[in-house]
Amino acid sequence: MRFLSIILIACLPGLTFAQQTDSLKRDSSMQALKVSIRNSRGLNPPKIQSFIAPAVLMSYGLVSLGNNAIRTLDFSTQKELHEDHPNFSTKADNYLQFAPGVAFYALNLAGVKSKHGLVDGTALYVLSEAIMGVSTYSVKHIVGRERPNGGDKFSFPSGHTANAFAAAEFLNQEYRDVSSWIGYAGYAAATATGVLRMYNNAHWLSDVVAGAGFGIASTKLAYLIYPHLKTMVMGKQSMKYSLVPMYQQKAAGLSFNGTF
C-alpha cells in the first residue's frame, strides 16, 4: 500500500497547479469560449522516435508470453502482492482510468486552453481510444492468456491500463506547453490504475506494462494520422465555434454553435 500512497501523492502537484491556473484564467463573467480550430498543418504530429518508449513497453509484455525470467517475475510479483494484501479489493480502477480524459474537458471548460480546441481535441481523443480498443481487443483474443484470478483468458494486455495511458498521453500532448505537471498528474493516475489492476488480481505485471505501451502508442499514432484524416474529410476548411454556458428552465447546460 505504500507504493499506492506514493502514486496518489504524485497526483497532487498536478491537481494543485490546475487549480491555480484555473483561478488565474477563469472568466468571472462566464463569457463564451471561442476557439478557432486549426487546420491540419498546425497539429504538430509526433516524431517517429517518440514511439521507441511504448515499443519497449509492448516488447517487454510480448517477451513475457514465453517461459522466461520476465514471466517468472509475473508470478513472484503476484504472489508477493497477495501475500501482503490477500483481501484487497476496490473498484477505483474502473473510474480512475478515465481521470486524464475528464481532466482535459474540465480544464478547457474552466478556461485553461489546450493545444487544440475541443472539437479537434475530442476527435484526437476518440481516435486514440478507437486505436487502443481495436488493438488491445484483438491481441487479447489472439494471445488468450488467463488472468491471475482465473476469471477468463483475456488478461494480456491490460485494457484498463491501456485506456488510462492513452488518456494520460493525450492530456500530456494537449497541456505540456501549459505545465508539465498536468501531464505528470495524468500519468500518475494511469500508473495507479495499472497498480490497482494487479492488486485486484486481475492482471499480471507484464499485462500492465504492455497495456501502458499500447495506450501511449495508440495516442501517438492518433496524433500522427489525424492531420491526414482531417484533410481527407474537411480539405483545407477551418471551423469556428462558440461554446456558451446557459441556464434555461431550471437546467444548466452548454450552447454550441459552429460554422465552416
Question: Please, could you describe this protein's structure?
Answer:
There is one protein chain. By secondary structure, this protein is mainly alpha-helical. The protein has one domain (2-31, 46-239). It contains nine helices and three strands. It has helices at 2-25, 52-63, 69-84, 92-96, 99-109, 118-143, 159-175, 180-199, 205-234, and strands at 33-37, 239-248, 251-259. A three-stranded antiparallel β-sheet has the order 1-2-3, covered by helices on one side. Strand 2 (239-248) and strand 3 (251-259) form a beta hairpin. Helix 7 (159-175) crosses helix 9 (205-234). The longest helix is centred in the last third of the chain and has 30 residues, at 205-234. The radius of gyration is 20 Å and the shape is globular. The protein starts with a helix and ends with a strand. Residues 1-42 have low confidence and may be disordered.
The side-by-side strand order for the widest beta sheet comes to 1-2-3
Largest sheet geometry: 3 strands, antiparallel
Return the average pLDDT rounded to an integer. Answer: 81
Continuous helix count: 9
| SSE order, one letter for each helix or strand | HEHHHHHHHHEE
N-to-C terminal Cα separation, in Å? Answer: 52 Å
Which regions contain 5 or more consecutive residues with pLDDT less than 50? 1-42
Using DSSP, what is the number of strands?
Answer: 3
Number of domains: 1
Which class do the helix and strand fractions yield? mainly alpha
Tell me, what's the shape? globular
Mind telling me the C-alpha Rg? 20 Å
| Strand content range | 5-15%
- Helical residue percent? 55-70%
